[in-house]
Amino acid sequence: MITLFKNIKELIQVRTEPIAFVSGKAMNELPTIKNAFLIVENGLISDFGSMENCPKINVSEVIDATGRMILPSWCDSHTHIVYAGNRENEFVDRINGWSYEAIANNGGGILNSAKKLQETSEETLYQESKVRLEEVIQLGTGAIEIKSGYGLTVDAELKMLRVIKRLKETYSIAIKATFLGAHAVPLEYKENKETYLKLLTEEALPKIAEEHLAEYIDIFCETGYFSVADTEFILEAGKKYGLIPKIHVNQFTAIGGVQAGVKCQALSVDHLEIMRDEDIEALKNTKTMPVALPSCSYFLSIPYTPARKMIEAGLPLALATDYNPGSTPSGNMNFVVSTACIKMKMTPEEAINAATLNGAYAMGVEEELGSITKGKQANLILTKQINSYGFMPYSFGTNQIEKVYLKGKEIGV
Ligand SMILES: N=CN[C@@H](CCC(=O)O)C(=O)O
Ligand SMILES: [Zn+2]
Protein backbone atom coordinates (compact mmCIF):
# COMPACT_ATOMS: atom_id res chain seq x y z
CA MET A 1 0.00 0.00 0.00
CA ILE A 2 1.54 3.30 -1.13
CA THR A 3 -0.07 6.69 -0.40
CA LEU A 4 1.09 9.94 -1.94
CA PHE A 5 0.21 13.22 -0.25
CA LYS A 6 0.79 15.93 -2.83
CA ASN A 7 0.69 19.76 -2.92
CA ILE A 8 1.17 20.01 0.83
CA LYS A 9 1.23 23.74 1.61
CA GLU A 10 3.90 23.11 4.27
CA LEU A 11 5.35 19.87 5.59
CA ILE A 12 6.33 20.52 9.19
CA GLN A 13 8.98 19.02 11.47
CA VAL A 14 11.07 17.56 8.67
CA ARG A 15 14.22 15.89 10.00
CA THR A 16 16.32 14.34 7.27
CA GLU A 17 18.82 13.07 9.82
CA PRO A 18 17.30 11.37 12.87
CA ILE A 19 17.70 13.48 15.99
CA ALA A 20 16.80 12.39 19.55
CA PHE A 21 15.57 15.76 20.85
CA VAL A 22 16.22 19.49 20.61
CA SER A 23 17.35 21.79 23.44
CA GLY A 24 17.93 25.45 24.13
CA LYS A 25 18.14 27.66 21.03
CA ALA A 26 17.59 24.69 18.70
CA MET A 27 14.08 24.40 20.09
CA ASN A 28 13.22 27.49 18.10
CA GLU A 29 14.17 25.85 14.81
CA LEU A 30 11.36 23.97 13.13
CA PRO A 31 12.44 22.68 9.71
CA THR A 32 9.71 22.64 7.07
CA ILE A 33 9.30 22.18 3.31
CA LYS A 34 6.82 24.40 1.48
CA ASN A 35 4.82 22.95 -1.43
CA ALA A 36 5.83 19.41 -0.52
CA PHE A 37 5.03 15.78 -1.19
CA LEU A 38 5.07 12.87 1.26
CA ILE A 39 5.01 9.17 0.42
CA VAL A 40 3.85 6.55 2.90
CA GLU A 41 4.58 2.91 2.21
CA ASN A 42 3.03 0.21 4.37
CA GLY A 43 2.52 2.61 7.26
CA LEU A 44 6.01 4.12 7.18
CA ILE A 45 7.29 7.39 5.74
CA SER A 46 9.32 6.36 2.69
CA ASP A 47 10.00 9.67 0.95
CA PHE A 48 9.28 13.39 1.09
CA GLY A 49 10.52 16.56 -0.50
CA SER A 50 9.63 19.52 -2.63
CA MET A 51 6.77 19.01 -5.19
CA GLU A 52 9.16 19.73 -8.05
CA ASN A 53 11.05 16.55 -7.08
CA CYS A 54 7.94 14.42 -6.60
CA PRO A 55 8.72 11.00 -8.16
CA LYS A 56 6.39 9.60 -10.81
CA ILE A 57 5.57 6.22 -9.31
CA ASN A 58 2.54 3.98 -9.16
CA VAL A 59 0.68 4.55 -5.92
CA SER A 60 -2.45 3.04 -4.38
CA GLU A 61 -3.89 6.36 -3.24
CA VAL A 62 -3.30 10.07 -3.88
CA ILE A 63 -4.33 12.72 -1.35
CA ASP A 64 -4.29 16.30 -2.57
CA ALA A 65 -3.39 18.48 0.40
CA THR A 66 -3.64 21.81 -1.39
CA GLY A 67 -3.87 24.67 1.13
CA ARG A 68 -3.31 22.33 4.06
CA MET A 69 -0.32 21.36 6.15
CA ILE A 70 1.00 18.07 7.46
CA LEU A 71 2.84 17.57 10.71
CA PRO A 72 3.72 14.50 12.78
CA SER A 73 1.06 13.57 15.34
CA TRP A 74 1.40 14.86 18.87
CA CYS A 75 3.35 12.61 21.24
CA ASP A 76 1.64 12.85 24.63
CA SER A 77 4.21 11.48 27.06
CA HIS A 78 2.22 11.88 30.30
CA THR A 79 -1.38 10.76 30.83
CA HIS A 80 -3.61 8.93 33.28
CA ILE A 81 -6.48 8.16 30.88
CA VAL A 82 -7.39 4.87 32.56
CA TYR A 83 -9.66 5.96 35.40
CA ALA A 84 -13.16 5.35 36.71
CA GLY A 85 -15.87 8.01 36.92
CA ASN A 86 -14.82 11.61 37.35
CA ARG A 87 -14.17 14.24 40.04
CA GLU A 88 -16.59 16.91 38.91
CA ASN A 89 -17.70 17.42 42.53
CA GLU A 90 -14.14 18.43 43.50
CA PHE A 91 -14.08 20.86 40.57
CA VAL A 92 -17.10 22.59 42.09
CA ASP A 93 -15.51 22.46 45.57
CA ARG A 94 -12.49 24.28 44.18
CA ILE A 95 -14.70 26.91 42.55
CA ASN A 96 -16.17 27.39 46.03
CA GLY A 97 -12.74 28.08 47.49
CA TRP A 98 -11.32 24.70 48.52
CA SER A 99 -7.73 24.07 47.49
CA TYR A 100 -6.53 20.91 45.67
CA GLU A 101 -4.46 20.15 48.78
CA ALA A 102 -7.36 20.62 51.22
CA ILE A 103 -9.58 18.35 49.09
CA ALA A 104 -6.88 15.67 49.05
CA ASN A 105 -6.36 15.96 52.82
CA ASN A 106 -10.10 15.40 53.30
CA GLY A 107 -10.02 11.99 51.59
CA GLY A 108 -10.71 13.37 48.10
CA GLY A 109 -8.18 13.63 45.31
CA ILE A 110 -6.27 10.55 44.19
CA LEU A 111 -7.80 8.42 47.00
CA ASN A 112 -11.28 9.32 45.76
CA SER A 113 -10.39 8.07 42.24
CA ALA A 114 -8.79 4.95 43.74
CA LYS A 115 -11.96 4.06 45.65
CA LYS A 116 -14.03 4.37 42.46
CA LEU A 117 -11.54 2.38 40.41
CA GLN A 118 -11.30 -0.45 42.95
CA GLU A 119 -15.10 -0.84 42.71
CA THR A 120 -15.08 -0.83 38.88
CA SER A 121 -14.72 -4.01 36.83
CA GLU A 122 -11.84 -4.39 34.37
CA GLU A 123 -14.33 -4.48 31.49
CA THR A 124 -16.07 -1.24 32.54
CA LEU A 125 -12.71 0.43 33.09
CA TYR A 126 -11.63 -0.61 29.59
CA GLN A 127 -14.87 0.72 28.07
CA GLU A 128 -14.52 4.08 29.86
CA SER A 129 -10.85 4.40 28.94
CA LYS A 130 -11.20 3.53 25.26
CA VAL A 131 -13.60 6.44 24.80
CA ARG A 132 -10.86 8.79 26.04
CA LEU A 133 -8.24 7.15 23.84
CA GLU A 134 -10.43 7.48 20.74
CA GLU A 135 -11.13 11.11 21.66
CA VAL A 136 -7.44 12.05 21.87
CA ILE A 137 -6.60 10.22 18.64
CA GLN A 138 -9.13 12.46 16.87
CA LEU A 139 -7.40 15.45 18.47
CA GLY A 140 -4.14 14.50 16.75
CA THR A 141 -2.35 12.39 19.35
CA GLY A 142 -0.38 9.60 17.68
CA ALA A 143 1.62 8.29 20.65
CA ILE A 144 0.56 8.18 24.27
CA GLU A 145 1.97 7.14 27.61
CA ILE A 146 -0.59 5.89 30.14
CA LYS A 147 0.00 5.48 33.87
CA SER A 148 -1.54 3.28 36.53
CA GLY A 149 -1.79 4.87 39.98
CA TYR A 150 -5.52 5.00 40.70
CA GLY A 151 -5.58 1.40 41.93
CA LEU A 152 -3.37 1.62 45.02
CA THR A 153 -3.80 -2.08 45.78
CA VAL A 154 -1.83 -4.78 43.99
CA ASP A 155 -4.96 -6.13 42.31
CA ALA A 156 -6.34 -2.76 41.25
CA GLU A 157 -2.96 -1.59 39.93
CA LEU A 158 -2.68 -4.79 37.87
CA LYS A 159 -6.25 -4.24 36.65
CA MET A 160 -5.28 -0.79 35.36
CA LEU A 161 -2.14 -2.10 33.66
CA ARG A 162 -4.08 -4.92 32.01
CA VAL A 163 -6.53 -2.36 30.63
CA ILE A 164 -3.57 -0.43 29.18
CA LYS A 165 -2.24 -3.67 27.68
CA ARG A 166 -5.62 -4.34 26.04
CA LEU A 167 -5.69 -0.81 24.62
CA LYS A 168 -2.18 -1.43 23.23
CA GLU A 169 -3.30 -4.65 21.57
CA THR A 170 -6.47 -3.09 20.12
CA TYR A 171 -5.41 0.31 18.76
CA SER A 172 -2.71 1.23 16.26
CA ILE A 173 -1.59 4.30 18.23
CA ALA A 174 1.78 3.80 20.00
CA ILE A 175 1.13 3.22 23.71
CA LYS A 176 3.64 2.98 26.57
CA ALA A 177 2.60 1.86 30.08
CA THR A 178 3.88 3.23 33.37
CA PHE A 179 3.50 1.69 36.82
CA LEU A 180 2.59 4.50 39.26
CA GLY A 181 1.64 2.48 42.34
CA ALA A 182 3.37 5.16 44.43
CA HIS A 183 0.87 7.85 43.44
CA ALA A 184 -0.55 8.35 46.94
CA VAL A 185 -0.38 6.53 50.26
CA PRO A 186 -3.63 4.58 50.83
CA LEU A 187 -5.41 5.50 54.09
CA GLU A 188 -4.72 2.10 55.68
CA TYR A 189 -0.97 2.66 55.26
CA LYS A 190 -0.97 6.31 56.35
CA GLU A 191 1.08 5.58 59.47
CA ASN A 192 3.03 2.84 57.74
CA LYS A 193 4.14 4.06 54.34
CA GLU A 194 7.15 1.70 54.27
CA THR A 195 4.83 -1.32 54.28
CA TYR A 196 2.99 0.09 51.26
CA LEU A 197 6.27 0.67 49.42
CA LYS A 198 7.28 -2.90 50.21
CA LEU A 199 3.97 -4.15 48.83
CA LEU A 200 4.66 -2.31 45.58
CA THR A 201 8.22 -3.53 45.23
CA GLU A 202 7.88 -7.08 46.56
CA GLU A 203 4.40 -8.05 45.36
CA ALA A 204 3.37 -5.78 42.50
CA LEU A 205 6.67 -5.40 40.63
CA PRO A 206 7.38 -9.14 40.14
CA LYS A 207 3.85 -9.63 38.71
CA ILE A 208 4.16 -6.60 36.45
CA ALA A 209 7.48 -7.88 35.12
CA GLU A 210 6.15 -11.42 34.65
CA GLU A 211 3.15 -10.22 32.60
CA HIS A 212 5.18 -7.49 30.79
CA LEU A 213 2.65 -4.91 31.91
CA ALA A 214 4.82 -1.76 32.00
CA GLU A 215 7.84 -0.10 30.44
CA TYR A 216 8.22 2.69 33.00
CA ILE A 217 8.02 3.25 36.75
CA ASP A 218 6.84 6.54 38.24
CA ILE A 219 6.25 8.09 41.70
CA PHE A 220 4.65 11.29 42.99
CA CYS A 221 7.64 12.90 44.74
CA GLU A 222 5.97 15.69 46.71
CA THR A 223 5.48 17.04 50.22
CA GLY A 224 2.70 14.99 51.81
CA TYR A 225 3.06 12.16 49.28
CA PHE A 226 6.46 10.50 48.78
CA SER A 227 9.89 11.74 49.86
CA VAL A 228 13.13 11.87 47.89
CA ALA A 229 14.29 8.73 49.71
CA ASP A 230 11.03 6.94 48.78
CA THR A 231 11.56 8.08 45.20
CA GLU A 232 15.05 6.65 44.94
CA PHE A 233 13.87 3.45 46.60
CA ILE A 234 10.97 2.91 44.18
CA LEU A 235 12.83 3.93 41.03
CA GLU A 236 15.80 1.70 41.84
CA ALA A 237 13.46 -1.21 42.63
CA GLY A 238 11.71 -0.70 39.29
CA LYS A 239 15.05 -0.65 37.46
CA LYS A 240 15.84 -4.11 38.84
CA TYR A 241 12.76 -5.34 36.94
CA GLY A 242 13.76 -3.53 33.76
CA LEU A 243 11.43 -0.54 34.21
CA ILE A 244 12.78 2.89 33.26
CA PRO A 245 12.22 5.72 35.77
CA LYS A 246 10.03 8.80 35.33
CA ILE A 247 8.87 11.14 38.12
CA HIS A 248 6.01 13.46 39.05
CA VAL A 249 8.07 16.16 40.72
CA ASN A 250 8.17 19.85 41.76
CA GLN A 251 4.43 20.28 41.24
CA PHE A 252 3.80 22.17 44.49
CA THR A 253 7.15 22.14 46.30
CA ALA A 254 10.81 21.63 45.36
CA ILE A 255 12.32 19.05 47.69
CA GLY A 256 15.19 17.62 45.66
CA GLY A 257 13.22 15.21 43.48
CA VAL A 258 14.68 16.54 40.23
CA GLN A 259 18.16 15.64 41.50
CA ALA A 260 16.89 12.19 42.49
CA GLY A 261 15.51 11.75 38.96
CA VAL A 262 18.81 12.66 37.37
CA LYS A 263 20.65 10.36 39.80
CA CYS A 264 18.33 7.45 38.90
CA GLN A 265 18.70 8.29 35.18
CA ALA A 266 15.02 9.06 34.78
CA LEU A 267 13.89 9.35 31.18
CA SER A 268 11.75 12.32 32.18
CA VAL A 269 10.91 14.56 35.13
CA ASP A 270 7.38 15.87 34.83
CA HIS A 271 5.34 18.85 36.16
CA LEU A 272 8.14 21.24 37.28
CA GLU A 273 5.81 24.09 38.12
CA ILE A 274 8.16 25.10 40.95
CA MET A 275 11.76 25.22 39.72
CA ARG A 276 14.73 26.51 41.70
CA ASP A 277 17.96 27.51 39.95
CA GLU A 278 19.62 24.38 41.32
CA ASP A 279 16.89 22.21 39.75
CA ILE A 280 17.54 23.76 36.34
CA GLU A 281 21.27 23.31 36.90
CA ALA A 282 20.81 19.63 37.79
CA LEU A 283 19.14 18.91 34.45
CA LYS A 284 21.90 20.43 32.30
CA ASN A 285 23.82 17.98 30.10
CA THR A 286 21.72 14.99 31.16
CA LYS A 287 19.53 12.59 29.20
CA THR A 288 16.54 13.39 31.42
CA MET A 289 13.79 15.26 29.58
CA PRO A 290 11.89 17.94 31.53
CA VAL A 291 8.15 17.74 30.77
CA ALA A 292 5.70 20.60 31.31
CA LEU A 293 1.96 20.06 31.75
CA PRO A 294 0.35 23.46 31.12
CA SER A 295 -3.25 22.20 31.14
CA CYS A 296 -2.71 21.15 34.76
CA SER A 297 -1.46 24.64 35.66
CA TYR A 298 -4.48 26.07 33.86
CA PHE A 299 -7.04 23.84 35.56
CA LEU A 300 -5.59 24.14 39.10
CA SER A 301 -4.51 27.79 38.75
CA ILE A 302 -0.99 26.95 39.85
CA PRO A 303 2.24 28.39 38.33
CA TYR A 304 3.28 27.36 34.83
CA THR A 305 6.60 25.58 34.32
CA PRO A 306 9.17 28.36 33.71
CA ALA A 307 9.81 27.37 30.10
CA ARG A 308 11.68 30.52 29.08
CA LYS A 309 14.14 30.25 31.93
CA MET A 310 14.71 26.56 31.22
CA ILE A 311 15.13 26.93 27.45
CA GLU A 312 17.39 29.94 27.90
CA ALA A 313 19.52 27.81 30.24
CA GLY A 314 19.97 25.44 27.30
CA LEU A 315 17.56 22.72 28.45
CA PRO A 316 15.17 20.76 26.24
CA LEU A 317 11.47 20.75 27.13
CA ALA A 318 8.58 18.44 26.22
CA LEU A 319 4.87 19.19 26.53
CA ALA A 320 2.17 16.69 27.55
CA THR A 321 -1.45 16.79 28.71
CA ASP A 322 -1.47 14.96 32.09
CA TYR A 323 -5.05 13.90 31.18
CA ASN A 324 -6.53 12.70 34.51
CA PRO A 325 -9.75 13.14 36.49
CA GLY A 326 -8.37 15.40 39.22
CA SER A 327 -5.89 17.98 38.01
CA THR A 328 -6.41 17.90 34.21
CA PRO A 329 -9.61 16.44 32.80
CA SER A 330 -8.50 17.20 29.24
CA GLY A 331 -6.37 15.31 26.75
CA ASN A 332 -6.24 18.00 24.10
CA MET A 333 -2.63 18.46 22.92
CA ASN A 334 -3.74 21.36 20.69
CA PHE A 335 -4.82 23.23 23.81
CA VAL A 336 -1.50 22.30 25.47
CA VAL A 337 0.47 23.75 22.55
CA SER A 338 -1.63 26.96 22.54
CA THR A 339 -1.36 27.36 26.31
CA ALA A 340 2.40 26.84 26.19
CA CYS A 341 2.61 29.73 23.72
CA ILE A 342 0.12 31.99 25.48
CA LYS A 343 1.04 31.40 29.11
CA MET A 344 4.59 30.06 29.03
CA LYS A 345 5.76 32.35 26.20
CA MET A 346 7.04 29.51 24.09
CA THR A 347 7.21 30.29 20.38
CA PRO A 348 5.06 28.13 18.06
CA GLU A 349 8.30 26.48 16.87
CA GLU A 350 9.36 25.64 20.43
CA ALA A 351 5.92 24.39 21.37
CA ILE A 352 5.60 22.16 18.28
CA ASN A 353 9.09 20.73 18.87
CA ALA A 354 8.15 20.11 22.52
CA ALA A 355 4.90 18.34 21.59
CA THR A 356 6.34 16.15 18.83
CA LEU A 357 10.08 15.37 18.80
CA ASN A 358 10.79 16.01 22.49
CA GLY A 359 7.52 14.34 23.51
CA ALA A 360 8.54 11.25 21.56
CA TYR A 361 11.87 11.16 23.42
CA ALA A 362 10.12 11.57 26.79
CA MET A 363 8.20 8.35 26.12
CA GLY A 364 10.98 6.41 24.39
CA VAL A 365 9.53 6.40 20.86
CA GLU A 366 11.88 8.92 19.24
CA GLU A 367 13.19 6.32 16.79
CA GLU A 368 9.69 5.60 15.47
CA LEU A 369 7.71 8.82 15.86
CA GLY A 370 7.85 12.58 16.49
CA SER A 371 9.17 13.85 13.15
CA ILE A 372 8.86 13.52 9.39
CA THR A 373 11.83 11.22 8.84
CA LYS A 374 12.22 8.30 6.44
CA GLY A 375 11.46 5.01 8.16
CA LYS A 376 9.35 6.56 10.92
CA GLN A 377 5.67 5.64 11.37
CA ALA A 378 3.28 7.77 9.35
CA ASN A 379 1.25 9.05 12.31
CA LEU A 380 0.20 12.38 10.87
CA ILE A 381 -2.01 15.42 11.31
CA LEU A 382 -3.50 16.96 8.16
CA THR A 383 -4.63 20.48 9.02
CA LYS A 384 -7.57 22.42 7.67
CA GLN A 385 -6.76 25.27 5.26
CA ILE A 386 -4.55 27.57 7.31
CA ASN A 387 -1.99 30.19 6.35
CA SER A 388 0.79 29.24 8.73
CA TYR A 389 1.51 26.61 11.37
CA GLY A 390 1.51 29.38 14.00
CA PHE A 391 -2.22 29.71 13.31
CA MET A 392 -2.79 26.43 15.19
CA PRO A 393 -1.70 27.73 18.63
CA TYR A 394 -2.99 31.23 17.81
CA SER A 395 -6.55 30.09 17.15
CA PHE A 396 -6.77 28.37 20.55
CA GLY A 397 -9.90 26.36 21.19
CA THR A 398 -10.65 26.00 17.47
CA ASN A 399 -9.99 22.61 15.92
CA GLN A 400 -7.65 23.11 12.96
CA ILE A 401 -7.31 19.38 12.28
CA GLU A 402 -9.04 18.00 9.19
CA LYS A 403 -7.81 14.41 9.33
CA VAL A 404 -5.54 12.19 11.37
CA TYR A 405 -3.56 9.17 10.18
CA LEU A 406 -2.07 6.31 12.17
CA LYS A 407 0.49 4.22 10.31
CA GLY A 408 -0.66 5.95 7.14
CA LYS A 409 -4.31 4.98 7.62
CA GLU A 410 -6.98 7.63 8.00
CA ILE A 411 -8.72 7.33 11.33
CA GLY A 412 -12.31 8.45 10.87
CA VAL A 413 -14.71 9.78 13.46
N1 LIG B 1 0.11 15.06 40.70
C1 LIG B 1 -0.12 13.91 40.72
N2 LIG B 1 -0.90 13.18 39.91
C2 LIG B 1 -1.77 13.67 38.91
C3 LIG B 1 -3.09 14.11 39.39
C4 LIG B 1 -3.68 13.27 40.37
C5 LIG B 1 -5.12 13.52 40.66
O1 LIG B 1 -5.48 14.59 41.19
O2 LIG B 1 -5.90 12.62 40.38
C6 LIG B 1 -1.10 14.76 38.12
O3 LIG B 1 -0.10 14.47 37.49
O4 LIG B 1 -1.52 15.93 38.15
ZN1 LIG C 1 0.41 13.09 36.09
From TrEMBL:
Co-factor remark: Binds 1 zinc or iron ion per subunit.
GO molecular function: imidazolonepropionase activity
Residues binding Fe(3+): H78, H80, H248, D322
EC number: 3.5.2.7
First-level EC class: hydrolase
Reaction catalyzed: 4-imidazolone-5-propanoate + H2O = N-formimidoyl-L-glutamate
Domain of life of the source: Bacteria
Domain (Amidohydrolase-related) ranges: 69-410
Pathway: Amino-acid degradation; L-histidine degradation into L-glutamate; N-formimidoyl-L-glutamate from L-histidine: step 3/3
Keyword terms, alphabetized: Cytoplasm, Histidine metabolism, Hydrolase, Iron, Metal-binding, Zinc
Chain positions recorded as N-formimidoyl-L-glutamate binding sites: Y150, N324, G326
CC cofactor: Zn(2+); Fe(3+)
Positions with a binding annotation for Zn(2+): H78, H80, H248, D322
Subcellular localization: Cytoplasm
Short name of any one Pfam family annotated for the protein: Amidohydro_1
Residues holding 4-imidazolone-5-propanoate: R87, Y150, H183, Q251, S327
Function statement: Catalyzes the hydrolytic cleavage of the carbon-nitrogen bond in imidazolone-5-propanoate to yield N-formimidoyl-L-glutamate. It is the third step in the universal histidine degradation pathway.
Record-stated family: Belongs to the metallo-dependent hydrolases superfamily. HutI family.
Protein name: Imidazolonepropionase
Organism name: Flavivirga jejuensis
